[in-house]
Amino acid sequence: MSQPLPSSAAPVVSLRDVHKSFGSLKVLDGVSFEVPRGEVMAIIGRSGSGKSTALRCIDRLETIESGEIIVCGHRVSDPKLPLRALRLDVGIVFQSYNLFPHLTIEENICLAPVTVKGKRRAEARETARRVLGQVGLGDKLDSYPEQLSGGQQQRAAIARSLAMEPQVMLFDEVTSALDPELTGEVLRVIEQLAAGGMTMVMVTHEMGFARRVADRIVFMHQGKVWETGPAGILDAPETAELRQFVGSGL
Amino acid sequence: MIATQLGATHLQFLLQGALWTVVLSAIALVGGGLLGFLVALCRVSGSRAVRLASGAYVQVVQGTPLLVIMFLVFFGLPPLGLNVSPLAAASASLILYVSAYMGEIWRGCIESVPKPQWEAAECLAMSRTQRMFHVVLPQAVRIATPPTVGFLVQIIKNTSLASVVGFVELARAGQIINNSLFEPFLVYLIIALLYFAMCYPLSRWSRRLERRTGFARRQQVVSP
Ligand SMILES: Nc1ncnc2c1ncn2[C@@H]1O[C@H](COP(=O)(O)OP(=O)(O)OP(=O)(O)O)[C@@H](O)[C@H]1O
Ligand SMILES: [Mg+2]
């Protein structure tokens, strides 16, 4: 039913006229966008504009009222969608890392590949070593999360997602909880992923980073895609809202 | 028990009673713990019906005095053709009682594992059962240890109610001895000391655990 579509031209993520409310609060008001394979999309906007909600809908952490979401060929808006298949294709990283505190970094990374994908331990360890090297934490295999700095924990969380070999990665303000001097190390990891061709959707407040890494920007305002286009729109906004947002230095 | 002065035989009898108190407590802890674990899992089940049914079980058991449960099991079952020994009646009653309270304590511990932990596991495509057993329960166990050890003290003290169905544990042993000695102050003082000797180390241990895990948890909370 929800087999990944064969066509390589099909976008990896596609939202069409998505509506979502929390009670009487309209949070997504007809959101549409597409992310082609290998592209990086940055979602920006004021607090409360619905950025996180849009991202969470892509991974079906929230259900929508109307519209259509298709991710890697999975019809996410279908209530009967088998979630496991979707989540095997989607990796998501949150602001608050959410590493499992009772497990070492290596165990954090191996848990899902072993329990969900049925990988053998040795193989999973090999993967853990590889992804940790990728995020520059090759020496932290046996550490517990609480022994790492925020930036290291966030990179470990990214590594944990990568170990599942997702088709698309979602990032929700992954540097917002970090001290300024630690954001750089996390952003560099994401930038490397982008250079490696990973399809990504990231909610971010780091304008310079969005400009540099994103192929496309979505500016959300009051639950709508207010303005969208290549990074250039940040330099020449068409709407007063985006102009104000960029000007406010957020 | 003919001697009119407290002697070695009396003390031996008391210690034997204390031993039965320990045995009964252990039965209640293990049996009630197992059943209570099941109750806790049911209380956080994905199925509404299971949650409601287990909630009703907890309400009913918690709303009934342990004394009444003991009477019900010991005197209520024989007319139905089920004969129960005092030990069996006391054990069954305590297991019911403990399961309801432990179930609630542990439900609270499971629910106090931060929701983002569930979500992180969910996003890694782990099933509900995998999330529960690999991510949530190991963390809940740490949170649960101090209140569980603390509740063990309640269990030990509550075993004294088993005397109402004629089971000779520490309290009942004391009663019997006092009936022949008529030295209530001395006898019950010894009983109190014996209970204290069993409970105090546990309370101390529970408080130490509480301080330690409280510290550990403050360190690991990072979600905003
Ligand atoms: N689970 C929820 N229940 C009720 N309201 C919610 C819930 N989640 C989000 N909201 C509300 O929906 C609106 C949009 O939230 P969302 O988190 O998507 O905004 P955001 O753009 O990510 O903001 P921020 O930059 O602060 O993270 C907000 O007003 C928020 O309070
Ligand atoms: Mg947000």
UniProtKB/TrEMBL annotation, chain A:
Query: What are the UniProt keywords, alphabetically?
Result: Amino-acid transport, ATP-binding, Cell membrane, Membrane, Nucleotide-binding, Transport
What is the protein's given name?
Phosphate ABC transporter ATP-binding protein
The chain positions of domain ABC transporter read 13-247
Write the signal peptide boundaries.
Answer: none
SMART domains given in the database record: AAA (SM00382)
The UniProt record lists the keyword Membrane: yes
Q: Which organism is it from?
A: Teichococcus rhizosphaerae
Which family is this protein grouped under?
Belongs to the ABC transporter superfamily.
Q: Which PANTHER family match?
A: AMINO ACID IMPORT ATP-BINDING PROTEIN, GLUTAMATE_ASPARTATE IMPORT ATP-BINDING PROTEIN GLTL
User: Record's Gene3D superfamilies?
Assistant: P-loop containing nucleotide triphosphate hydrolases
Question: Chief location of this protein?
Answer: membrane
Which CDD domains does the annotation name?
Answer: ABC_HisP_GlnQ (cd03262)
Q: Is the keyword Membrane in the record?
A: yes
A GO CC term assigned to this protein in UniProt: plasma membrane
Q: Which InterPro entries match?
A: AAA+_ATPase, ABC_ATPase_HisP-typ, ABC_transporter-like_ATP-bd, ABC_transporter-like_CS, MetN_ABC_transporter-like, P-loop_NTPase
Q: Which GO terms describe its molecular function?
A: ABC-type amino acid transporter activity; ATP binding; ATP hydrolysis activity
Pfam families in the cross-refs = ABC_tran (PF00005)
According to Swiss-Prot or TrEMBL, what is its membrane topology?
Answer: Peripheral membrane protein
Q: Where in the cell is it found?
A: Cell membrane
TrEMBL record, chain B:
Segments crossing the lipid bilayer: 20-44, 56-77, 185-203
Q: Which SUPFAM superfamilies match?
A: MetI-like (SSF161098)
Record-linked InterPro entries: AA_ABC_transptr_permease_3TM (IPR010065), ArtM/GltK/GlnP/TcyL/YhdX-like (IPR043429), MetI-like (IPR000515), MetI-like_sf (IPR035906)
Q: Name one GO cellular component term.
A: ATP-binding cassette (ABC) transporter complex
UniProtKB keywords:
Cell membrane, Membrane, Transmembrane, Transmembrane helix, Transport
- Recorded family membership: Belongs to the binding-protein-dependent transport system permease family. HisMQ subfamily.
What name has this protein been given in UniProt? Amino acid ABC transporter permease
Q: Which organism is it from?
A: Teichococcus rhizosphaerae
